Amino acid sequence: MTDHATHQHPAPHTHQHDAGLPALLDLDAQVLGDYLDGAAAWSAGLVHRAGTIVDIGSGTGAGTVALARRFPAAELLAVDRSPDMVARTLGAARSAGVAGRVRAVEADLDRAWPALGGVDLIWASSSLHELADPQRAMRDIFAALNPGGLAVVVEMDGLPRFLPDSFHGGLEPRLHALLARRGWNAHPDWQPGLERAGFADVQRRAFPTEGRPAPELAARYARAFLARMGPALEGVAAAGDLAALRRVLADRGTDSPLGGPGTVVRGGRTAWAARKP
Ligand SMILES: C[S@@+](CC[C@H](N)C(=O)[O-])C[C@H]1O[C@@H](n2cnc3c(N)ncnc32)[C@H](O)[C@@H]1O
Questions:
Q1: Which of 134, 158, 180, 244 has a CA 20 to 30 Å removed from the CA of 187?
Q2: Is 111 helix (H, G, I), strand (E, B) or coil?
Q3: What was the pLDDT predicted at 2?
Q4: Which atom of ligand 1 is nearest to the CA of 110?
Q5: How many Cα atoms within 13 Å fall on the side-chain side of residue 68?
Q6: Atom of ligand 1 lying closest to residue 59 CA
Q7: Under a CB-based contact definition with an 8 Å cutoff, are residues 170 and 238 in contact?
Q8: How far is the centre of ligand 1, averaged over its atoms, from the C-alpha of 226 (Å)?
Q9: How do beta strands 265-275 and 75-80 pair?
Q10: 152 C-alpha to center of ligand 1: Å?
Q11: CATH of domain 21-158+185-212+267-275
């Protein structure tokens, strides 16, 4: 993998504070977060026991909270290299009334893993591909799990889509294709890597998601995401396409393509579940 730009991560291999990311993660969870409950329920059907759960790269904590709700007897540990994300995860747990079962630690998993052991379920959502050495991380996940324990890896199938397919002759798919070439959301099929790490019974499931948020929420998410795409496309996308993107972002009129009544935001996740024999 040449580039760990993800989801929305602008600068591969740099660990700089990314001021816009938390808001975007929260908007994503609000609009397209159905997959969280779906993937947590799927995990619940596969895991043998779930006394201890670790969420790797917890971000703002939407996954940690979904897991805490799905597994009401579990103790959870959220891990993130960003102190801001750790604080946000704890805040999300408090707001959800599950703080008593959630701990969060700051750790850069590219450097050193916190002491983990005897874990029943390890969850990594939109985070495995951000690590410098995902194969090593899969081995570390394997080592931290109890025999019979479950690893669940979740990734975005593509970037979220806000505009009608036909808009400006397919503007959004064209821009997404360019971003994919720049490594945005680049991740492989994790099955072979999981098997190399020692896992068995690897299963894969798609969670297509369509959000139909309130117009104001849809517009906020769309603007935050599309504005983030702009700088990454400078000098890469055709001038006409960049101008069209700028026009969409500047259009606050009632017939703006972003956030009108009935706006559908399209996304989707794939999850892999793998068992330690
Ligand atoms: C795209 S966000 C995903 C957050 C959340 N899991 C979700 O699905 O919304 C990736 C998260 O992984 C964290 N992360 C990236 N590299 C990491 C590393 N080397 N060690 C620990 N956390 C890392 C980032 O700080 C960020 O919070």
A1: 244
A2: coil
A3: 29
A4: 19
A5: 26
A6: 27
A7: no
A8: 21
A9: unpaired
A10: 15
A11: 3.40.50.150
Return mean pLDDT, the chain.
Answer: 91
Helix (H) or strand (E) holding 104: strand 102-106
Distance from residue 239's CA to the centre of ligand 1 (Å): 33
Q: Which of 69, 51, 251 lies closest to 168, judged by CA? A: 251
Q: Does residue 98 have its Cβ closer than 6 Å to ligand 1?
A: no
The secondary structure element, H or E, covering residue 225 is: helix 215-233
- Tell me, using a 6 A CB cutoff, whether residue 155 lines ligand 1: no
**Which residues neighbour 44 within 8 Å (Cβ) at sequence distance 6 or greater?**
50, 70, 71
Per the document, the length of the chain is 277
Residue 16 has what pLDDT?
56
Q: Which positions ≥6 away from 65 have C-beta within 8 Å?
A: 92, 93, 96, 98
Could you give the CA distance from residue 254 to residue 237 in angstroms, rounded to a whole number? 28
Spans of the chain, pLDDT less than 50? 1-15
Within the chain, how many helices (H) and strands (E) appear? 9, 7
The first and second tokens of residue 161, run together, are 């889509």
Residue 58 is predicted with a pLDDT of: 98
Domain boundary assignment for the chain: 21-158+185-212+267-275
18 lines ligand 1 (CB under 6 A): no
The two beta strands, 145-156 and 265-275, are antiparallel
Rounded to whole angstroms, the Cα distance separating 80 from 159 reads 22
Distance, CA 6 to ligand 1 centroid (Å)? 10
Residue with the smallest CA separation from ligand 1 atom 14 is: 57
Per DSSP, the three-state class of 55 is strand
If phi over 0 gives left and psi between -120 and 50 gives alpha, with beta otherwise, what is residue 140?
alpha
